[in-house]
Automatic annotation (TrEMBL):
PROSITE patterns: A_DEAMIN_EDITASE. This is tRNA-specific adenosine deaminase 1. Residues 56-336 form the A to I editase domain. GO terms for biological process: tRNA wobble adenosine to inosine editing. One of its GO terms (molecular function) is tRNA-specific adenosine-37 deaminase activity. It comes from Candida viswanathii.
């Protein structure tokens, strides 16, 4: 039953992605004949335990270095791994007027009772849950050796150490991002819910993912990453679903190169946006915020702006707004302390 549900979810995301008629955003074959690859992810709503409705699609494998937060001012999207983009776009959808997944009875915002949520990912999420899978690949079975001693566990550093927090490294010699692995972020969301700092101020109760749909993950690794190292009360634990559907044509392989672009697609609205370096494709400016109007719909600045069309915002800056949800802040602190060695990124503050 679980495998059947996983396959139905995977098929809904992959078929929707394959059916997109877009001019750019999907991996291409470069002029030198090398084909690009990328990770595909999507948030799927399961209605009344039967109807499968894909809500968001996203691709991407990149992360910006932490230093860009000095000039970002909420206009850059820092983490462009597909699963995080799919969740950010889902947050944007929750702020849509008359969102069909949201119950606003008596002015109280909550996810409708007949809705369950799944996150599909075409590759195992980076970080702890996939370390044994990475180590088992013959062409990738050497751990990264840092050029100098580091406190952070980046990417494949010390991949024999399991159950630890890791950061997204880009390449082994890339600038430090401090952005935690998708494994760690998804693990924490079992406690805080998937609503980000902006959207969580609208919903009184957290919204949780019910299923993670992916492949090449051993159940033991999944249990260690998402359950045994996160033994806390009131955790909404993910359930792992596998799938058997091979129609996605841009999977990672040694003879391919990673696509620099990320594609966002909001299925109900038929809205698509392509990102490059955390901004709309074509709007990137080196070491600066993007060209005017070049920010993504899912950047923090636009999220706050969209929230302001729904409710009055008392905070005068983003950091104050983020900290105003005291319960979410408490849960984040508890979750991070439990996972240990969680080094926070720099602030990306801006005036509201």
């Amino acid at each position: 039953m679980n495998d059947d549900l996983g396959t139905r979810i995977a098929k809904s995301v992959i078929d929707t992605f394959n059916g997109l008629n877009v001019k750019s955003g999907k991996p291409v074959t470069r002029s030198n004949g090398v084909q690009e690859w990328t990770v595909l992810a999507g948030v799927v709503a399961i209605l009344d335990d039967s109807e499968i409705k894909p809500i968001t699609l996203a691709t991407g494998v990149k992360t910006l270095p932490d230093k860009v937060r000095v000039y970002s001012k909420g206009l850059l999207v820092h983490d462009m791994h597909a699963e995080m983009l799919a969740l950010r776009l889902f947050n944007y959808y929750l702020l849509e007027k008359d969102c069909p997944l949201v119950d606003t009875t008596d002015g109280v915002y909550k996810l409708r009772d007949n809705v369950k949520l799944a996150l599909f990912v075409s590759e195992p999420p980076c970080g702890d849950v996939s370390m044994n899978h990475v180590a088992s690949l013959k062409e990738e079975n050497e751990p990264w050796v840092p050029r100098k001693k580091q406190k952070l566990n980046r990417g494949r550093n010390n991949f024999g150490e399991l159950g630890i927090v890791r950061t997204k490294p880009g390449k082994s010699d890339s600038l430090i991002s401090l952005s935690k692995s998708c494994s760690d972020k998804l693990c924490l969301k079992q406690l805080t819910g998937v609503c980000n700092a902006v959207v969580s101020t609208l919903f009184e109760q957290p919204i949780y993912l019910d299923y993670l749909v992916t492949k090449n993950i051993d159940q033991e690794d999944f249990n260690r990453c998402f359950r045994s190292r996160f033994d806390l009360p009131n955790v909404h634990y993910l359930t792992l679903l596998t799938y058997d559907y091979d129609e996605y044509g841009f999977e990672k392989s040694e003879d391919k190169t990673a696509s620099p672009l990320s594609l966002l697609h909001l299925v109900p609205a038929k809205f698509t946006q392509v990102l490059n370096n955390g901004v709309k494709n074509g709007s990137y400016v080196k070491n600066k915020a993007p060209k005017p109007g070049g920010e993504s719909v899912i950047c923090n600045w636009n999220m706050v702006d969209k929230l302001g069309t729904i409710k009055d915002i008392a905070a005068t800056d983003y950091t104050t707004l983020k900290q105003s949800n005291a319960r979410r802040q408490e849960l984040k602190t508890l979750g991070r302390d439990t996972l240990q060695d969680w080094t926070c990124t720099s602030e990306d503050d801006f005036e509201i």
